[in-house]
Amino acid sequence: MRKKEEILYVVVPCYNEEEVLEETTKQLKAKMEKLVKDKVISDQSKVMYVNDGSKDKTWELIEKISKREKYFTGISLSRNRGHQNALLGGLMTAKNYADVVVSMDADLQDDIHAIDEMLKKYYDGCDIVYGVRSARKKDTFFKRVTAEGFYKFMRALGVDCVYNHADYRLTSKRVLEELEGFQEVNLFLRGMFPLVGFQSDIVYYERNERFAGESKYPLKKMLNFAWDGITSFSVKPLRFISGMGFFILMLSIFFAIYMIIRMCIGQSVYDWMIFVLSIFFMGGLQMICMGVVGEYIGKIYGEVKARPRYIISKNLLEDGKCD
């Protein structure tokens, strides 16, 4: 059992969120005030907006909100680094000020009332509490099928990730301190937190419709994100290539023996068209295999360069622009 009234930071990555930011602030302000009033969290708790190189007035709004609202602050990255890097930057900054951190998106699709249950489980001893969608009724058929297929495929590849969990989660300070030791450049935080370990639990919630604006994860980004997750956490595709190569080798030997037997007994063998088709088949298979191997080599290339995953250009807490 932990003591109550610990410092909570809510980390919210933002990319071109000017349409929704005021409403997000309104709802999170009410939630923070209630939690402080009920003595669940400390009066020093904050909501930290992370500006991920937005092209609109998102950062200007964050600055205005931080001056106006007691429980709000923000940091700004030097340029757009993508959702996962922005989230990591916010988490690593927040751990310097907070005892416990909750991460969520800015579009109000994550039910903020689930934070109450997350904190309850945290005070009961959990270091990680995953926000998990109870249903996907509001998703399109395509998104529902592809999302569920992704989680099942990741499990089949041996990646330990929580089913129907995005990046809505609570983490303790010590979890974030351990996460800091993970130096991957290609981030897939949904797979990294289970690797940290410690006691964890789940809170189910109903995901809402986006309040305003457009999704920052169109199909192309979703596919790239899924592929990064697969290649960052599993070597099974490489093992599949080896197994496929061995299978084709055995199959080729079998057909070679088969054709030799047909020739010996005076029967005709496959004509030139089958020969050409087999060349195309092998050529295509080789290109696919080379592409998968190349993807892993590309990941290695990114890792060995060890470039910063994010650069913070402005921190309102350090600049003294927050109350």
Percent of residues in β-strands: 5-15%
Reading the helices and strands in chain order gives: EHEHEHEHEHEHHEHHHEH
* CATH architectural category of the largest domain: Alpha-Beta Complex
Structural class: alpha/beta
CATH class of the largest domain: Alpha Beta
Mean pLDDT: 78
**Roughly what percent helix?**
40-55%
What is the first-to-last residue Cα distance?
31 Å
Number of helices: 11
Describe the protein's architecture and organization:
With 323 residues, the chain is of the alpha/beta class. The chain folds into two domains: 8-214 and 309-319, Spore Coat Polysaccharide Biosynthesis Protein SpsA, Chain A (Alpha-Beta Complex); 236-305. It is built from eleven helices and eight strands. It has helices at 21-37, 58-68, 83-94, 114-123, 141-156, 173-179, 189-196, 219-233, 236-264, 272-305, 316-319; strands at residues 8-14, 46-51, 72-77, 100-103, 128-133, 165-172, 200-205, 312-315. The chain starts with 7 loop residues before the first strand and ends with a helix. The model has no long low-confidence stretch (mean pLDDT 78).
Question: What features would you highlight for this structure?
Answer:
323 residues; alpha/beta; Spore Coat Polysaccharide Biosynthesis Protein SpsA, Chain A; 2 domains; 8-stranded mixed β-sheet; 11 helices; 8 strands
